Amino acid sequence: MAIGIFDSGVGGLTVWQALQPIATEDIVYFGDTIHIPYGDKTPEQLFGYFRRIMDFFVQRKVSAVVVACNTMSAVVVPRIGPNPPLPLFNMIDAAVAQAVPVTKGRIGVLATRATTESGAYPRALKNAAPDLEVASQACPKLVPFIEAGLLGGPMISDAVKEYVTPLLQAKVDTIILGCTHYPLILPEIRRVAGNGVSILDPAEQIREDVARFLEGRTPTCSPGSCRTEFWVSGDPWRFQSLAQDILGTAIPPVQRYSGAGDGW
Ligand code: DGL
Questions:
Q1: What whole-number distance in Å separates Cα of residue 199 and Cα of residue 173?
Q2: Ligand 1 within 6 A of 145 CB?
Q3: Which residues is 256 bridged to in the sheet?
Q4: Could you tell me the residue ranges of all domains in the chain?
Protein backbone atom coordinates (compact mmCIF):
# COMPACT_ATOMS: atom_id res chain seq x y z
CA MET A 1 0.00 0.00 0.00
CA ALA A 2 1.05 3.62 -0.49
CA ILE A 3 -0.06 7.13 0.36
CA GLY A 4 -1.12 9.38 -2.53
CA ILE A 5 -0.24 13.08 -2.69
CA PHE A 6 -1.29 15.49 -5.41
CA ASP A 7 -1.03 19.11 -6.44
CA SER A 8 -1.12 21.06 -9.68
CA GLY A 9 2.69 20.98 -9.82
CA VAL A 10 5.73 21.32 -7.55
CA GLY A 11 3.85 22.93 -4.63
CA GLY A 12 2.95 19.52 -3.22
CA LEU A 13 6.65 18.80 -2.82
CA THR A 14 6.58 21.00 0.30
CA VAL A 15 4.05 18.55 1.78
CA TRP A 16 5.97 15.55 0.41
CA GLN A 17 9.09 16.81 2.22
CA ALA A 18 7.16 17.25 5.46
CA LEU A 19 6.01 13.61 5.25
CA GLN A 20 9.48 12.10 4.77
CA PRO A 21 10.30 11.72 8.49
CA ILE A 22 7.05 9.87 9.25
CA ALA A 23 6.31 7.91 6.04
CA THR A 24 5.93 4.19 6.75
CA GLU A 25 4.38 3.43 3.35
CA ASP A 26 5.63 4.31 -0.12
CA ILE A 27 4.27 7.51 -1.70
CA VAL A 28 2.65 8.11 -5.08
CA TYR A 29 2.98 11.79 -6.09
CA PHE A 30 0.82 13.22 -8.86
CA GLY A 31 1.41 16.69 -10.35
CA ASP A 32 -1.42 17.79 -12.62
CA THR A 33 0.96 19.95 -14.58
CA ILE A 34 -1.10 20.36 -17.74
CA HIS A 35 -3.68 22.26 -15.70
CA ILE A 36 -1.38 24.64 -13.83
CA PRO A 37 -2.30 27.06 -12.36
CA TYR A 38 -5.34 25.70 -10.53
CA GLY A 39 -5.89 29.16 -9.04
CA ASP A 40 -7.33 30.41 -12.36
CA LYS A 41 -9.74 27.51 -12.88
CA THR A 42 -13.50 27.35 -12.28
CA PRO A 43 -15.00 25.06 -9.64
CA GLU A 44 -16.41 22.85 -12.45
CA GLN A 45 -12.96 22.43 -14.04
CA LEU A 46 -11.35 21.65 -10.69
CA PHE A 47 -14.07 19.13 -9.88
CA GLY A 48 -13.40 17.30 -13.17
CA TYR A 49 -9.64 17.15 -12.55
CA PHE A 50 -10.22 15.92 -9.00
CA ARG A 51 -12.43 13.01 -10.13
CA ARG A 52 -9.84 11.81 -12.62
CA ILE A 53 -7.00 12.15 -10.11
CA MET A 54 -9.02 10.04 -7.65
CA ASP A 55 -9.51 7.40 -10.41
CA PHE A 56 -5.72 7.40 -10.89
CA PHE A 57 -5.12 6.88 -7.17
CA VAL A 58 -7.71 4.11 -6.97
CA GLN A 59 -5.86 2.37 -9.85
CA ARG A 60 -2.55 2.81 -8.00
CA LYS A 61 -4.20 1.21 -4.94
CA VAL A 62 -3.24 3.94 -2.46
CA SER A 63 -4.67 3.77 1.05
CA ALA A 64 -5.31 7.53 1.48
CA VAL A 65 -4.76 10.77 -0.41
CA VAL A 66 -3.15 13.97 0.83
CA VAL A 67 -4.77 16.83 -1.08
CA ALA A 68 -1.50 18.82 -1.07
CA CYS A 69 -3.28 21.74 -2.70
CA ASN A 70 -5.26 24.43 -0.92
CA THR A 71 -7.25 25.27 -4.05
CA MET A 72 -8.65 21.73 -4.31
CA SER A 73 -9.08 21.63 -0.51
CA ALA A 74 -11.05 24.90 -0.62
CA VAL A 75 -13.13 24.47 -3.77
CA VAL A 76 -13.68 20.72 -4.31
CA VAL A 77 -13.26 18.86 -1.00
CA PRO A 78 -16.24 20.61 0.69
CA ARG A 79 -18.46 19.59 -2.27
CA ILE A 80 -17.70 15.87 -2.41
CA GLY A 81 -19.79 14.79 0.56
CA PRO A 82 -19.03 12.45 3.43
CA ASN A 83 -17.93 9.39 1.39
CA PRO A 84 -14.92 10.21 -0.79
CA PRO A 85 -13.49 7.31 -2.85
CA LEU A 86 -10.43 7.29 -0.56
CA PRO A 87 -9.69 8.80 2.88
CA LEU A 88 -8.53 12.40 2.33
CA PHE A 89 -6.31 14.84 4.22
CA ASN A 90 -6.91 18.45 3.25
CA MET A 91 -4.90 21.62 3.76
CA ILE A 92 -7.68 23.85 5.12
CA ASP A 93 -8.57 21.65 8.10
CA ALA A 94 -4.86 21.32 8.85
CA ALA A 95 -4.28 25.08 8.64
CA VAL A 96 -7.21 25.87 10.92
CA ALA A 97 -6.07 23.32 13.53
CA GLN A 98 -2.62 24.90 13.44
CA ALA A 99 -3.63 28.57 13.38
CA VAL A 100 -6.37 28.79 16.02
CA PRO A 101 -4.13 27.94 19.02
CA VAL A 102 -1.35 30.37 18.01
CA THR A 103 -3.14 33.49 16.76
CA LYS A 104 -3.86 36.49 18.94
CA GLY A 105 -7.01 37.13 16.89
CA ARG A 106 -6.07 38.51 13.46
CA ILE A 107 -5.16 36.05 10.73
CA GLY A 108 -4.01 36.78 7.19
CA VAL A 109 -4.29 34.17 4.44
CA LEU A 110 -2.14 34.23 1.30
CA ALA A 111 -3.76 31.98 -1.32
CA THR A 112 -4.68 31.53 -4.97
CA ARG A 113 -7.53 33.47 -6.51
CA ALA A 114 -9.81 30.39 -6.55
CA THR A 115 -9.11 29.67 -2.87
CA THR A 116 -9.72 33.31 -1.91
CA GLU A 117 -12.94 33.54 -3.93
CA SER A 118 -14.25 30.30 -2.38
CA GLY A 119 -14.29 31.95 1.07
CA ALA A 120 -13.26 28.56 2.50
CA TYR A 121 -10.56 29.93 4.83
CA PRO A 122 -12.62 32.68 6.57
CA ARG A 123 -15.53 30.23 6.85
CA ALA A 124 -13.47 27.44 8.40
CA LEU A 125 -11.51 29.79 10.71
CA LYS A 126 -14.61 31.58 11.99
CA ASN A 127 -16.35 28.26 12.43
CA ALA A 128 -13.54 27.18 14.75
CA ALA A 129 -13.21 30.57 16.52
CA PRO A 130 -16.04 33.04 15.74
CA ASP A 131 -14.20 36.12 17.09
CA LEU A 132 -11.27 35.84 14.67
CA GLU A 133 -10.64 38.63 12.15
CA VAL A 134 -9.54 37.16 8.82
CA ALA A 135 -7.93 39.08 5.94
CA SER A 136 -7.51 37.14 2.69
CA GLN A 137 -5.14 38.05 -0.12
CA ALA A 138 -5.16 36.46 -3.59
CA CYS A 139 -1.65 36.14 -5.07
CA PRO A 140 -2.15 35.27 -8.76
CA LYS A 141 1.47 36.01 -9.80
CA LEU A 142 3.19 33.65 -7.39
CA VAL A 143 2.43 30.15 -8.72
CA PRO A 144 3.35 31.00 -12.35
CA PHE A 145 6.63 32.54 -11.13
CA ILE A 146 7.48 29.55 -8.93
CA GLU A 147 6.61 27.05 -11.66
CA ALA A 148 8.93 29.02 -13.96
CA GLY A 149 11.70 28.31 -11.45
CA LEU A 150 11.74 31.79 -9.94
CA LEU A 151 12.19 31.42 -6.15
CA GLY A 152 13.82 34.81 -5.49
CA GLY A 153 14.90 38.02 -7.19
CA PRO A 154 13.19 41.34 -7.88
CA MET A 155 10.01 39.99 -9.49
CA ILE A 156 9.26 37.65 -6.57
CA SER A 157 10.24 40.35 -4.12
CA ASP A 158 7.89 42.95 -5.69
CA ALA A 159 5.00 40.48 -5.89
CA VAL A 160 5.44 39.37 -2.27
CA LYS A 161 5.51 43.03 -1.17
CA GLU A 162 2.32 43.71 -3.14
CA TYR A 163 0.50 40.78 -1.49
CA VAL A 164 1.85 40.90 2.08
CA THR A 165 1.52 44.69 2.58
CA PRO A 166 -2.32 44.67 2.74
CA LEU A 167 -2.16 41.96 5.42
CA LEU A 168 0.28 44.04 7.47
CA GLN A 169 -2.02 47.06 7.05
CA ALA A 170 -4.83 44.87 8.42
CA LYS A 171 -2.53 44.27 11.45
CA VAL A 172 -2.54 40.48 11.24
CA ASP A 173 -0.46 38.63 13.85
CA THR A 174 -0.39 35.35 11.91
CA ILE A 175 -0.11 34.57 8.19
CA ILE A 176 -1.22 31.21 6.80
CA LEU A 177 0.65 30.07 3.70
CA GLY A 178 -2.60 29.05 2.01
CA CYS A 179 -0.99 27.59 -1.11
CA THR A 180 1.52 24.74 -1.00
CA HIS A 181 3.80 26.57 -3.44
CA TYR A 182 4.40 29.47 -1.04
CA PRO A 183 6.73 27.74 1.46
CA LEU A 184 9.18 27.62 -1.48
CA ILE A 185 9.52 31.42 -1.19
CA LEU A 186 9.26 31.56 2.61
CA PRO A 187 12.47 33.60 3.11
CA GLU A 188 11.03 36.40 0.95
CA ILE A 189 7.64 36.29 2.72
CA ARG A 190 9.35 36.33 6.11
CA ARG A 191 11.54 39.25 5.08
CA VAL A 192 8.54 41.37 4.07
CA ALA A 193 6.30 40.28 6.99
CA GLY A 194 8.98 40.94 9.63
CA ASN A 195 9.57 39.16 12.93
CA GLY A 196 6.37 40.24 14.65
CA VAL A 197 4.16 37.97 12.52
CA SER A 198 3.92 34.16 12.83
CA ILE A 199 4.00 32.43 9.46
CA LEU A 200 2.32 29.03 9.33
CA ASP A 201 2.90 26.22 6.84
CA PRO A 202 -0.05 23.81 7.18
CA ALA A 203 2.18 20.94 5.97
CA GLU A 204 3.43 20.67 9.57
CA GLN A 205 -0.06 19.82 10.78
CA ILE A 206 -0.64 17.45 7.82
CA ARG A 207 2.49 15.57 8.96
CA GLU A 208 0.89 15.01 12.38
CA ASP A 209 -2.45 13.98 10.87
CA VAL A 210 -0.86 11.50 8.46
CA ALA A 211 1.43 10.13 11.21
CA ARG A 212 -1.68 9.37 13.30
CA PHE A 213 -3.30 7.60 10.33
CA LEU A 214 -0.15 5.53 9.69
CA GLU A 215 0.17 4.52 13.35
CA GLY A 216 -2.95 2.42 12.94
CA ARG A 217 -1.51 0.52 9.95
CA THR A 218 1.20 -2.06 9.31
CA PRO A 219 4.39 -0.30 8.15
CA THR A 220 5.69 -1.41 4.73
CA CYS A 221 8.92 0.61 4.89
CA SER A 222 10.74 2.69 7.46
CA PRO A 223 10.98 6.50 7.47
CA GLY A 224 13.80 7.60 5.22
CA SER A 225 13.75 4.39 3.16
CA CYS A 226 10.22 4.60 1.66
CA ARG A 227 10.13 5.17 -2.08
CA THR A 228 8.14 7.67 -4.14
CA GLU A 229 6.70 7.18 -7.62
CA PHE A 230 6.37 10.58 -9.34
CA TRP A 231 3.67 11.02 -11.98
CA VAL A 232 2.55 14.09 -13.93
CA SER A 233 -0.11 14.89 -16.52
CA GLY A 234 2.23 17.16 -18.52
CA ASP A 235 5.95 17.07 -19.36
CA PRO A 236 7.83 14.64 -17.06
CA TRP A 237 11.27 16.09 -17.88
CA ARG A 238 10.25 19.60 -16.98
CA PHE A 239 8.80 18.49 -13.66
CA GLN A 240 11.83 16.34 -12.84
CA SER A 241 14.29 19.15 -13.52
CA LEU A 242 12.35 21.74 -11.49
CA ALA A 243 11.72 19.29 -8.63
CA GLN A 244 15.44 18.42 -8.48
CA ASP A 245 16.38 22.11 -8.44
CA ILE A 246 13.95 22.74 -5.60
CA LEU A 247 14.85 19.67 -3.54
CA GLY A 248 18.57 19.88 -4.27
CA THR A 249 18.64 16.13 -4.86
CA ALA A 250 17.87 13.62 -7.62
CA ILE A 251 14.41 12.07 -7.83
CA PRO A 252 13.46 8.87 -9.67
CA PRO A 253 12.38 9.20 -13.32
CA VAL A 254 8.99 10.91 -13.53
CA GLN A 255 6.22 9.10 -15.42
CA ARG A 256 3.42 10.56 -17.48
CA TYR A 257 -0.11 9.43 -16.69
CA SER A 258 -1.66 8.87 -20.10
CA GLY A 259 -5.21 8.95 -18.73
CA ALA A 260 -4.52 12.60 -18.12
CA GLY A 261 -4.47 13.57 -21.78
CA ASP A 262 -5.96 16.50 -23.62
CA GLY A 263 -9.45 15.12 -23.11
CA TRP A 264 -9.32 16.27 -19.47
N1 DGL B 1 -0.38 24.60 -4.82
C2 DGL B 1 -1.78 24.74 -5.01
C3 DGL B 1 -2.49 25.34 -3.83
O4 DGL B 1 -2.10 25.01 -2.72
C5 DGL B 1 -2.26 25.13 -6.39
C6 DGL B 1 -1.69 26.36 -6.99
C7 DGL B 1 -2.13 26.60 -8.42
O8 DGL B 1 -1.95 25.71 -9.26
O9 DGL B 1 -2.66 27.70 -8.69
O10 DGL B 1 -3.42 26.07 -3.95
A1: 9
A2: no
A3: 232
A4: 2-90+204-256, 93-201
11 CA closest ligand 1 atom index: 1
**82 pLDDT tier (thresholds 50, 70, 90):** confident
Residue 216 has φ and ψ, to the nearest 5°, of: -85, 10
CATH number of 2-90+204-256: 3.40.50.1860
pLDDT at residue 263 in the model: 52
Half-sphere exposure of 143 (CA within 13 A, CB side): 30
H-assigned helices in 103-229? 113-118, 120-128, 142-147, 154-169, 186-193, 203-215
Q: Which residues are catalytic?
A: 69, 179
40-70 pLDDT, tens digit per residue, is 999 999 999 999 999 999 999 999 999 999 9
Residue 70 Cα to ligand 1 middle (Å): 6
Distance 13 CA to ligand 1 centre (A): 12
- For strands 62-67 and 26-31, give the pairing: unpaired
Cβ of 11 closer than 6 Å to ligand 1, yes or no, is yes
DSSP SS3 for 245: helix
Q: Is the CB of 112 under 6 A from ligand 1?
A: yes
